């Protein structure tokens, strides 16, 4: 090494230049490896999330038909949407802590198989009580999936790649909306009476089988970590470990243990921020079909097609805003601006929900803000958490935040039942989103790096 350096020095190349060139080469090698990891992991995880979201929100289409069959009111529908998150919240932290023990591969497979079976069982629901029970069971089955994937991805990618990687994963929400809406609409419009079953029963059956199959496949396909990935060489595994470790050591304020994370005020600020995001998700995922129908579209197939438009626009906006966040290496103000955008969309939805073009524009703004916030948000806690704290605290933040998913549909459903329109619920969601923008924009600005 000394001989090499002296020869370079004789040629006029300084030691600092050599170090800088080596650093550039190492970063280029790392980016190439992380690109290969992304191409291996993200498409599969993306597929898992698409299936997850379709099975979670297909209720928004099914209820257009089955509410008459099981005696479901608008208020009881909102409550049924919300009670899903009771089991989800209670079991989310235990699921992520278990992931640390048994690995991501078995955890993801377990969750997918269970939720697919429970989602499929929704076809047997005959009354409101059974509807509530099935929704709670679905929440228990799905608990830990999203925070588990977030933790899994942070263990593979350093901070400079995370918003881009998370946006690729969260794109699954948009694709679920783009594809799930038309598919659900087609099933509802064409499957009535097949083998003496209602169309909504076929909806749950046909959309519940794929996650079971993909979950079984995950046992073979997913590695638990870079250290166990057979498709990485020993040198590549070492480079990934060094990059992740270097990313962690760059911030002395990183929290290593779950007990310490529970005492970290930033965890609870982030939890409130995530709480507000879920209000936008509730408006978009559970009331979009109703909004579109009230705006003048009656055919289920056409409702499904139109419902894809806001998700498509939201996906384009999310990719652009996430890349901009990565390029600027700034998170909190990007989150705040996106939350305000979703808030503006909710206001527009409240003022003009009965008119087709303004209604779709409002849903599109909510979609851009919601998807972008979700992708950017998870880079914030990852910047000050590591070790066991990362798995547990990410699940804790998600659990607290998901209380919004319990409160939002319940409140919006009750307000809609009272006023016979979504305006009051939209304005409430807009207010909550604006509060989230202020809290994250002020309290986490330059404090989580």
From TrEMBL:
Membrane-topology descriptor: Multi-pass membrane protein
Gene3D superfamilies for this protein: MFS general substrate transporter like domains (1.20.1250.20)
Segments crossing the lipid bilayer: 41-63, 75-95, 107-125, 131-153, 165-188, 200-222, 267-288, 300-321, 333-353, 359-380, 392-412, 424-444
Cellular compartments annotated: Membrane
GO molecular function, one term: transmembrane transporter activity
Transmembrane found in the keyword field: yes
Cited InterPro entries: MFS (IPR011701), MFS_dom (IPR020846), MFS_trans_sf (IPR036259)
UniProt signal peptide: none
Residue ranges constituting the Major facilitator superfamily (MFS) profile domain according to the UniProt record: 41-449
Domain of life of the source: Bacteria
UniProt protein name: Major facilitator transporter
Organism name: Caballeronia glathei
């Amino acid at each position: 090494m000394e001989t090499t350096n002296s020869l370079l020095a004789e040629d006029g190349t300084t030691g600092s230049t050599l170090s800088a060139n080596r650093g550039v080469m190492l970063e280029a090698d790392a980016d190439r490896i992380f690109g290969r990891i992304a191409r291996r992991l993200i498409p599969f995880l993306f597929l898992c999330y698409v299936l997850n979201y379709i099975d979670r929100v297909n209720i928004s289409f099914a209820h257009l038909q089955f509410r008459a069959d099981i005696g479901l009111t608008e208020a009881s529908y909102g409550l049924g949407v919300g009670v899903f998150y009771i089991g989800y919240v209670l079991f989310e932290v235990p699921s992520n802590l278990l992931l640390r023990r048994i690995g991501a591969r078995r955890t993801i497979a377990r969750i997918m198989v269970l939720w697919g079976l429970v989602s499929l069982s929704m076809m047997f629901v005959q009354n409101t009580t059974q509807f509530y029970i099935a929704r709670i069971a679905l929440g228990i089955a799905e608990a830990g999936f999203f925070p588990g994937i977030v933790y899994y991805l942070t263990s593979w990618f350093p901070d400079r790649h995370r918003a881009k990687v998370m946006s690729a994963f969260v794109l699954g929400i948009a694709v679920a909306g783009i594809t799930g809406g038309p598919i659900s609409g087609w099933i509802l419009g064409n499957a009535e009476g097949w083998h003496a079953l209602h169309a909504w029963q076929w909806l749950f059956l046909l959309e519940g089988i794929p996650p079971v199959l993909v979950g079984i496949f995950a046992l073979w396909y997913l590695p638990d970590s870079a250290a166990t990935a057979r498709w990485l060489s020993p040198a590549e595994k070492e480079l990934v470990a060094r990059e992740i470790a270097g990313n962690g050591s760059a911030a002395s304020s990183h929290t290593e243990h779950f007990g310490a994370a529970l005492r970290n005020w930033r965890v609870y600020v982030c939890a409130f921020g995530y709480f507000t995001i879920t209000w936008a998700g509730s408006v978009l995922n559970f009331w979009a079909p109703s909004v579109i129908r009230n705006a003048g579209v009656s055919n289920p197939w056409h409702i499904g097609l139109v419902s894809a438009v806001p998700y498509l626009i939201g996906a384009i906006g999310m990719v652009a805003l996430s890349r901009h966040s990565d390029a600027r290496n700034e998170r909190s103000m990007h989150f705040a601006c996106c939350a305000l955008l979703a808030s503006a969309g909710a206001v527009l939805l409240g003022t003009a929900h009965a008119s087709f073009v303004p209604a779709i524009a409002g849903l599109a703004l909510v979609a851009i803000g919601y998807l972008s916030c979700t992708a950017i948000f998870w880079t914030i806690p990852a910047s000050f958490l590591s070790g066991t704290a990362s798995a547990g605290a990410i699940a804790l933040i998600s659990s607290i935040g998901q209380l919004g998913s319990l409160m939002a549909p319940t409140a919006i459903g009750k307000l809609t039942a009272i006023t016979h329109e979504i305006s009051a619920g939209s304005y409430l969601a807009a207010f909550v989103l604006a509060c989230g923008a202020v809290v994250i924009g002020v309290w986490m600005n330059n404090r989580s790096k």
